[in-house]
Design brief:
- By secondary structure, the protein is α/β, with parallel strands linked by helices.
- The strands form three sheets. The chain has a six-stranded parallel beta sheet with strand order 3-2-1-4-5-6, with helices on both faces.
- It is elongated and about 75 Å long.
- Helices cover 43% and strands 14% of the residues.
- Helix 1 links the parallel strand 1 and strand 2.
- Helix 8 packs across helix 11.
- It has three domains: 200 residues, NAD(P)-binding Rossmann-like Domain (Rossmann fold); 87 residues, Rossmann fold (3-Layer(aba) Sandwich); 135 residues, Rossmann fold, CATH 3.40.50.
Length: 437
């Protein structure tokens, strides 16, 4: 089977590479000529563990190609995945211009049956717009060519995307015809030989499933952050509370970790989009509005802890930050709590030295030279009035606290992910503050 994937961002590149790994002939297409040229040279635009080696292996085997013109590959393609960006507009709605551009290109140039699969996260009803855009172009040409539109939302975790794709816990597919169902079954069967966990449904339900899943996970995070903040006020320990409720099998223990807010390319965008979809249909998503509000407030919680510690006078304080990416094992800084925190610290007159194992280059694009980029965790802590842990990278878990203590001006640790043992850190002479305790 030959497939094409339009869009070589996080979703498109991982999807194309993993399909190629299973023997499918794949062409990944992007209008960004510089990006495609670099991919052809083996230069990967994103960081994802294991992805670079897999791309190189499948390029060398001839299963994975890169191109800039969709029209050059349409005649040989059986399934076309659309994985272009759907950035949020100012009102929170998803911008579908790139998705519809792909649809119009397909309608202008297709010559045989094609299954068009939406991999991008799109609002419910987008498949109808895609179908209409393709049909309009076919009508202009005066031709009748059968095609199907399907929805196959991705549920990849950044930092574990290859494992998620190669061994999925489920694959959600929305289809409109038996032909489309058969094609998608053929495509995913190699991944699910022992347990065929493809869940077929109608297309609108598949589109909604993606948003609902991310909104639920975001809700659990904001719920625990709200509980954590109340725990601090009343003297409870959120870590104990989390264990207590997580042991209930109706609740489970996933996504019950309090912290300094969620970020990334999915949760913030998808929550906003679902709120907007509700408004567009005269329905208010009250829970998700609260989820978003709690998360935005939570991104500033370490700033307020720092300000309280110094009695509101933090101008001129030098702050060490460990972690810039929105989560470990990625360089993604979209909606990262670190960005909100750093902006508030700079506005308050602080200086900042930050270290991240992977995301430094991305941080330089976002923050420029307004902060100092350290070479390691100890370089960041040098002469600092406070140390803030933002991203729970593994290499941050067991620092030499004796060394950190000697380097810092003020022995203050603000743990935004609750990864340290308070007694241990305090035994080294630090004042330690975390979330919800």
């Amino acid at each position: 089977m030959k497939i094409a994937i339009v869009g070589t961002g996080y979703v498109g590149l991982v999807t194309g590479t993993c399909f190629a790994e299973m023997g499918t002939e794949v062409c990944c297409i992007d209008v960004n000529e510089e990006k495609i040229a670099r991919l052809k040279e083996g230069i990967i635009p994103i960081y994802e563990p294991g992805l670079e080696d897999m791309v190189h292996r499948n390029q060398q085997a001839g299963r994975l190609q890169f191109g800039t013109r969709l029209v050059d590959y349409l005649d040989d393609t059986e399934v076309l995945f659309c994985a272009v960006g759907t950035p949020p507009d100012e009102d929170g709605s998803a911008d579908l211009q790139y998705v519809l551009d792909v649809a119009r290109t397909v309608g202008r140039h297709m010559n045989k049956y094609l299954l068009i699969v939406t991999k991008s996260t799109v609002p419910v009803g987008t498949s109808h717009k895609i179908r209409a855009a393709i049909q309009e172009e076919l009508d202009k040409r005066g031709v009748q060519i059968p095609f199907d539109v399907a929805s196959n939302p991705e549920f990849l975790k950044e930092g574990a995307a290859i494992k998620d794709f190669m061994s999925p816990d489920r694959v959600v597919v929305g289809v409109e015809s038996e032909r489309a169902r058969e094609l998608m079954s053929r495509l995913y069967r190699p991944f699910l030989l022992n347990n065929f966990r493809v869940i077929f449904m109608d297309v609108p339900s598949a589109e909604m499933t993606k948003y609902a899943a991310n909104a639920m996970l975001a809700t659990r995070i904001s719920f625990m952050n709200d509980i954590a903040n109340l725990c601090e006020i009343i003297g409870a320990d959120v870590n104990m509370v989390r264990k207590g409720i997580g042991s209930d099998n109706r609740i489970g223990n996933r996504f019950l970790y309090p912290g300094c807010g969620y970020g990334g390319s999915c949760f913030p965008k998808d929550v906003k989009a679902l709120i907007h979809t509700g408004k567009s249909n005269h329905y208010r998503m009250r829970i998700l509005e609260a989820v978003e509000q709690v998360n935005e407030i939570q991104k500033s919680i370490l700033f307020h802890k720092l300000s309280d510690y110094f009695g509101g006078d933090i101008k001129g304080k030098h702050i060490a930050i460990w972690g810039l990416a929105f989560k470990p094992e990625t360089d993604d800084m979209r909606e990262a709590p670190s960005v909100v925190l750093i902006e508030k610290l700079l506005e308050a007159g602080c200086t900042i030295s930050a270290y991240d194992p992977i995301a430094t280059e991305e941080a330089q694009h976002k923050l420029g030279n307004r902060i100092t980029y350290a070479k390691d965790i100890y370089d960041a802590a040098d002469d600092a009035d406070a140390l803030m842990l933002i991203t729970e990278w593994k290499e941050f878990r067991m620092p030499s606290w004796n060394v950190v203590k000697k380097l810092m001006k003020t022995p203050l640790v603000l743990d935004g992910r609750n990864i340290y043992d308070s007694k241990e850190v305090e035994e080294y002479g630090f004042e330690y503050h975390c979330i919800g305790k």
